[in-house]
Design goal:
Blueprint lengths: L1 H9 L3 H77 L1 H13 L13 H21 L13 H12 L19 H20 L3 E6 L5 E4 L19 H12 L2 E2 L3 E3 L5 E12 L2 E10 L2 H8 L11 E3 L18 H4 L11 H7 L4 E5 L2 E10 L2 E6 L1
Antiparallel strand pairs: 1-2, 1-6, 3-5, 4-5, 5-6, 7-10, 8-9, 9-10
């Protein structure tokens, strides 16, 4: 017994007690530290999630503000077009020109000394310069017939004003009068500089006057191959201009959606058409041809979207109505309207906007806002 006591007294218990007490104290400390870490980590996750949601909400609000801004811009543009068209159609100088040109137009061929080569000139222009440029733009040659549907008067006018010994598609609108001294040449020489200046200052691709009784384009600033043709029985009776003309005859002023317009080398065009009235009688119609350049300008206005952002418009046909400025060349108006183009702008966001919905979707960390956009009676989708 004494030996056991001596052995116990010989043991140093201090280190063991210290170790035991440290273990007893460290375990709660470690547990407390782990719990604090877990709580702070959770709190950090919560704050990060809140910050992410706040940022997402901020971006969403900004995108929706951008599409709303574009909606207003296009609406204001259409309203201005309507005002301009009404002012132009009601102008006394336009009414006088409409009446004078309508009277002189049918007599053009008979007042020419020689019209025997008119058909050959127009046919050569159509099969040569026009067809070459058309194919360059659209990737295919013109598929419509043209010259064989024109009478002698139309051929004479086209030979003098469309062909006019010019091989360039651009520049014909600088021709104030033909090379002859017919009644039409004289009236045209006075009226054309005024109409040309108005079209250029207003950004219109063309201004056309259409006779109400003959349904014929008796004047055009641009002098494309629709000039002097009949919109009901001529070669372009199935175009958007002809459709807009018929619509206006029935219901009044009408703005057509953009569509490929073959007489303008197949480039997409919209027409705003309105009657010209004199003393209560409808004597003709004026049509503004609108290109997508102005729509592009409206959409290209800086909205601080950043290098990867863009705002653009898609029509019901899934073709672009404005360029995707930050995208590849395939996402451009020109590319989406080529005859063989694949419609790359079809998406759920675009479909939702075309259906009248407004909202924001997120896909692969890319947020897209969408909303309907009215272009006259037509609904487009604007996306940002």
């Amino acid at each position: 017994m004494n030996s056991v006591s001596r052995r116990l007294r010989g043991l140093n218990m201090r280190p063991k007690l210290i170790a035991i007490f440290m273990c007893v104290g460290l375990v709660p400390l470690l547990i407390t530290t782990w719990m604090a870490f877990q709580m702070s980590s959770h709190a950090l996750d919560v704050e990060t999630e809140k910050a992410s949601e706040a940022l997402e909400s901020l971006v969403s609000d900004k995108l929706l503000a951008i599409v709303e801004c574009k909606q207003r811009a296009v609406k204001d543009y259409v309203d201005r077009l309507d005002d301009q068209l009404a002012s132009f159609a009601n102008d006394k100088a336009i009414v006088r020109a409409m009446k004078s040109l309508s009277q002189a137009f049918p007599k053009y061929a008979e007042q020419q000394a020689d019209t025997s080569d008119s058909r050959g000139q127009v046919a050569a222009y159509f099969s040569g310069s026009f067809s070459s440029k058309y194919q360059e733009i659209n990737g295919a040659a013109p598929s419509f017939s043209f010259v064989n549907k024109l009478d002698d008067n139309v051929l004479s006018l086209q030979a003098s004003f469309v062909v006019a010994k010019k091989e360039e598609q651009d520049g014909k609108n600088s021709l104030d009068g033909g090379e002859n001294t017919s009644d039409y040449d004289q009236i045209h020489g006075t009226f054309h500089p005024l109409a040309r200046s108005y079209a250029q200052s207003s950004g219109f691709a063309d201004i056309l006057l259409i006779d109400s009784s003959s349904h014929t384009v008796i004047y055009s600033v641009a002098k494309n191959i629709d000039f002097a043709t009949n919109l009901k029985s001529g070669p372009f009776a199935q175009t958007s201009l002809a459709a807009a003309f018929v619509q206006v005859e029935k219901e009044g002023p009408y703005l057509s959606d953009f569509d490929r317009y073959d007489p303008a080398l197949g480039k997409p065009a919209s027409f705003f058409v309105r009657p010209i009235v004199d003393e209560g009688k409808k004597i003709g119609f004026v049509a503004f041809r609108i290109s997508m350049d102005r729509i592009n300008q409206l959409m290209a206005v800086n909205t601080s979207l950043g290098e990867s952002g863009d705002a653009f418009i898609v029509g019901a046909d899934s073709r672009l109505r404005s360029d995707v400025h930050s995208g590849p060349s395939a996402l451009s108006v020109a590319a989406s309207w080529k005859k063989a183009a694949k419609l790359v702008t079809k998406s759920k966001s675009a479909d939702a906007g075309l259906s009248g919905e407004t909202g924001v979707v997120s896909n692969d960390d890319i947020m897209t806002a969408f909303a309907p956009l009215n272009f006259g009676p037509h609904t487009w989708a604007v996306l940002a």
